[in-house]
Amino acid sequence: MAKLSRKTQLTTGGPVFVYVDEEQDKIVRVTPIDLDDADAASWEIEARGRTFKPPRKTTVTPVTQGYKAMIYSGRRNLYPMKRVDFDPNGERNEEKRGESGYARISWDEALDIVASEIKRIKRDFGPGCCVIEPSSHHLWGNVGYRHSTLFRFMNTAGYTYGDHNPDSWEGWHWGATHMWGFTGRLGNPAQTDLYEDCIKNCEMIVFWSSDPETNNGIYGAFESTVRRRWLKELGVKMVFIDPFYNHTNGLYREGKWLAPQLGTDSALALGIAHTWLTEGTYDKEYVAEKTFGFDEWADYVLGRSDGIPKDAEWAEKECRIPAYDIRALAREWASRKTMLAAGGLGGWGGCCRAPGGMDWSRLMIALITMQGFGKPGINMFSTTQGAPVDSDFYFPGYADGGISGDCDNTFGGATFAFRMFDGVTTKSMTSALSTAAGVHINRMRLPECVLDDNVEWWGRGFVGASLEQQFHRYEYPTPGYNRIQMLHKYGGPMIGTMGQGDRYARMYRTKRLPFVVSQSIWFEGEVPFADIILPACTNFERWDIGEWANNSGYNPDSHNQANHRVIVFQKKCIEPLGESKSDYEIFRLICERLGLEGVFSEGKKDIDWVRQMFYASDLPKVTSWEDFTEKGYYIVPVTGKAPSEPAQRWFAEGRPEKLRGWATNLPPMAKPDSSGLQTQSGKVEFVSNSLKRFGHYDTDDKERPLMPMYIPSWEGHHTERFKKYPLAVLSPHPRFSFHTMGDGKDAFMNDIKDHRVEINGHYYWIMRMNPKDAAKRGITHHSTVKAYNERGSVVFAAQLTERIPEGTCHCYESSAEYEPIGEPGKSTDIGGCINILTPARFLSKYASGMATEHCLVEIEKWEG
Amino acid sequence: MKQHYLVIDIEQCFDCNNCFIACKDEYVGNAWPPYTDAQPRHGHRWMNIERTERGAYPRIDVAYRPTPCMHCEDAPCEKTHPEAVIRREDGIVLIDPHKAQDKHLTKSCPYGAIYWNDESGTAQKCTMCAHLIDSGDAPSGPRCVHSCPTEAIKHYCLEPAEMEQKIKDEKLEILLPELNTKPHVFYKNYHLFNKAFVAGGFLKGGECVKGADARLTGNGIDERQATDCFGDFKFDNLCPGDYTLYSDDKAVRKVTVPEVGATDTIAFNNNSQNLGNIEL
Question: Which of A73, A437, B77, B270 is 20 to 30 A from A207, comparing alpha carbons?
Answer without folding.
Answer: B270
